[in-house]
Specification:
Elements lengths: L1 E5 L2 H23 L2 E5 L6 H8 L8 E5 L1 E3 L10 H13 L3 E3 L8 H12 L6 E4 L22 E5 L2 H9 L12 E5 L1 H4 L4 E6 L5 H9 L17 E6 L8 H4 L3
Parallel strand pairs: 1-10, 2-3, 2-6, 3-5, 6-9, 9-10
Antiparallel strand pairs: 4-8, 7-8
Helix pairs in contact: 1-2, 2-3
Length: 250
């Protein structure tokens, strides 16, 4: 794993988008398409904005997303389908995308169907974040590090649900769904490269724990340290608790 630290969110976003663009262009040049996994949430705003301005043949990009709430309509402000449609798909013209339908009558079956599409070919790059509780996608602690399923139906813990309120997606915790469909930890690690975009001071404690503590299901994002082609993009605020040794990791 490599750690890159930037002075602010804007420079972090530009650097991460630059790396992501290089990966996608190389995949398109080599295989004729790029297959990507996109994260959502407030931490990804600037990164996705920069990425949508990149010189990429978006018609040759196939998109999957990390997670979605169960029981939330696509037109709800917190819907990740809505988020990706507005912040990535509509701005680039991506036509090949696979949504997790949070309103499916059988979420587990829906997850299996999308997972089969996901595993039909390699994933070139996964964009991820780290939650305030250390979660990776919606794999809250203690996360399942063993499951080989592409997507899991998971319960959201209280810290995760409070984060969603804090980011402004819901007005109170009672409105936040208690379950979601999440890409599994092992599935995320199958991506050929991982770009982890983690700005803001509110993530500093989780970043330190996941980068300097044990690799454990209690700190789900700590598993990223086992993936050789992961780059963690931080700003000064999110990196503020890190030791000098971690700061200089390459």
């Amino acid at each position: 794993m490599k750690v890159e630290i930037f002075r602010d969110k804007a420079s972090l976003a530009q650097a991460a988008a630059g790396r992501a663009s290089d990966i996608m262009r190389a995949a398109i040049a080599g295989r004729g398409c790029a297959r990507i996994i996109a994260a959502t949430g407030a931490s990804q705003f600037e990164f996705l904005e920069a990425l949508t301005k990149a010189d990429i043949d978006w018609n040759k990009v196939e998109l999957f997303h990390l997670d979605e709430y169960i029981g939330l309509a696509m037109n709800h402000p917190a819907s990740f389908r809505k988020y990706l449609m507005e912040r990535l798909i509509s701005k680039t013209g991506i036509s090949r995308y696979h949504f997790l339908d949070g309103n499916a009558s059988d979420p587990a079956q829906m997850a299996e169907q999308v997972g089969a599409e996901l595993n039909s070919a390699p994933i070139d790059v996964a964009f991820v974040g780290i939650g305030e509780n250390g979660h990776l996608a919606f794999n809250d602690p203690p996360a399942d590090f063993a499951s080989e399923k592409p997507y899991l139906v998971v319960a959201l813990d209280e810290a995760c649900r409070r984060q969603q309120v804090g980011e402004g997606w819901f007005s109170n915790v009672s409105e936040v769904p208690r379950q979601a469909v999440s890409m599994s930890v092992r599935q995320i690690l199958k991506a050929q490269e991982i770009v982890a975009v983690v700005p803001d001071a509110r993530k500093a404690r989780a970043v330190k724990a996941c980068m300097e503590g044990e690799i454990t299901p209690l700190l789900p994002a700590s598993i990223l340290r086992t993936h050789a082609r992961t780059t963690l993009y931080l700003d000064h605020a999110s990196a503020s608790r890190l030791s000098e040794r971690t700061r200089s990791a390459k």
